[in-house]
Amino acid sequence: MEKEGKTVIAGESRVLEMLQEINKNEGYISRERLSSISRELGIPLSLLYGLVTFYNQFNLATSGRYTIEVCEGTACHINKSSEIKRAIKDAAGISVDETSSDGLFTLRDVRCLGACALAPVLRLNKKIYSKMTYEKTKELIFKLKKEAEGEAKLK
Amino acid sequence: MKHIIRVCTCTGCQANGSLEVFEGLCRAVSGRKKECEGKGIEIEVKETGCTGLSETVPNVLVEPSGILYVNVNEDKAERIVDSVINNYVIDEMLFELDGKKYGKLTDVPFFALQERVLLARCGYTTPLSLSDYIESGGFEGLKAAVSMKQDEIIDILKRAKLRGRGGAGFLTGIKWRFLKNAKGNEKFLICNADEGDPGAFMDRSLLESDPFAVLEGMLIGAYATGATRSFIYIREEYPLAIDKVKTAIDILKENGYLGNNVLEKFSFDIEIRKGAGAFVCGEETALMNSVEGKRGQPRIKPPFPAERGIFGKPTNINNVKTYAFVPLILRNGPEWFLDKGNGKSSGGTLLICLTGKIRLNGVVEVKMGTALRKVIYDIGGGLKSGKRLKGVQTGGPSGGCIPEALIDTEIDYESMQELGSIIGSGGIICIDEDDSIIDLCIFFLDFLEKESCGQCTPCREGIIQMKDLIIKIKERKASEQDIAMLEKLAVYVRDNSLCGLGQTSPNVVLSSLKYFRDEFERRISGKPVFKINEKCTGCHLCFLKCPVKAINGSPKEIHEIIQEKCIGCGICYDVCKFQAIDKE
Ligand SMILES: Cc1cc2nc3c(=O)[nH]c(=O)nc-3n(C[C@H](O)[C@H](O)[C@H](O)COP(=O)(O)O)c2cc1C
Ligand code: SF4
Ligand code: SF4
Ligand code: SF4
Ligand code: FES
Ligand code: FES
Question: Which of A8, A28, B358, B369 matches a 20 to 30 Å C-alpha distance to B256?
Answer without folding.
Answer: A8
